[in-house]
Each structure stands twice: as structure tokens, then as C-alpha cells.
Amino acid sequence: MRLPALSSLFLASACLAQCPGYFLDDGSGGFTIGPSDFDAVVTWGNAFEPTAGCTWLTEVEVSFSGSLPEGTPITVLVYADPDGDGDPTNAVLRSAASHVSTATSTSEFATYAIRPTLVDTPGFFVAIAAFAPQRQSVARMDQDTLGTRSWLFYDGGLLTDLGAAPFILRMSEGPFPGTWMVRAKAQATGCLADLDGDGRATVFDFLEFQNAFDAGDLIADFDGDLILSLCDFLAFQNAFDAGC
Is the pTM of this model over 0.70? Predict the structure, then answer.
């Protein structure tokens, strides 16, 4: 009587095993970048095309500059790219999460959880944002790849509209071409309201949402404006009611 359930479990495990993740770098980077003669919120990341069966992002990996103070506040961002052209300046914010940096070497990555995020458009953009004072490098780059799908933005704050940044650079077109060491992990299935990761929408997800909201964690930003408000409660309620 338990065989169908076991078969479903094995099939689900097989689907998850087929999602190696999204990355463009070769696993090692020796060059780092930050603002030169000004302070800025630096946003850096990579554009990807979704792979069938691996369209629910669950974690983001990043390698930081070795000089970045550990514990620096960062924001993990996922945008939908509606035309899939690899240019995120018209991308739409899908999810965000608040974290802090940890020390990484030239070949190490820090892993950060995000809420389950569906990437069902022709492309998506995964980015990290952090405030950096002048001459503070934040982002690590793999210089062995050209960086045609890697982008850098400077602004005074977090960006819902990347195209509005006063400084925008595709890394392949700059003086230091290369690919950002920013990656994403994915799985076959997901649920927007499943904040505790158990595959269901339950009262515990309400508690996770409320705790995140009270802590100012942008994982609770369900309406995608990078501001926590009553609208996020309503957006979460709608996602919860949609179920898993």
C-alpha cells in the first residue's frame, strides 16, 4: 500500500537531482570591484535563462571581496526578465531577502535562503546589493569569462527598477570584463507562501512571515516594492490562499 507514495518520493528526488543550479563563473575569481571616489549601493549579478523543470529558486550563492567586513548588510534580489534578452534594465522584481555577508575566499561561496521564487519568464536576473563606501570592493569576479550576462549598478539605494540607476554597466563592455560569482539554486516545485520550506502552506508560514516582517527582513516583501507595509500582508494572504 505504500509503494505509490514511495514512487512519488523517488520521482520527486530525481527531479530535484536534475537541478544542478544556475551559474556562469568557473568557480574561482581573483578580481574585486567597488565604487572608486564615491559612496554607493552596489548591485551586481547575472542574467540567466530558466531550465525546464528547475524554475523554483530557493537559494542564492555569492563570493565576496576578501576586504568586505564580515556582517555587512546585504540584500539578495531576484528579478524577472520579461524578454529574456540578458539585459535586466527592464526587469521586474520578484523577491528579496535581507542577510549579512560572510567571509569567502577566491573559490568559496556563501549561501543565502530566499523564499521560493518562480522564474517563469524567458529570463531572470539574480543580484546582490550592498552599501559600499568609496574604495571598498564588494563583488568578486571570474575574469576568465567575458561577462556578457553580468551587470553592475550604482545608486543611492535599493532598486526596484534597475534601468533607473545612474550608473549601469554590462561587464563585457567595461575596462575589467568578467563574470560575477553569483549563483542560484533551484528545484522542480515550489510554493510562494511556503516560508518554512516544508512544501505546505500552514500556520507556521504565517508565523515565519510575521517574524520576518517584524525583523524588517525583505523576505516579507511580497508586493515587490522593497518596502514593508500592509500591502505585503495582503499579498502574502493571497499567496497563502492560493495554496501549494
Answer: yes
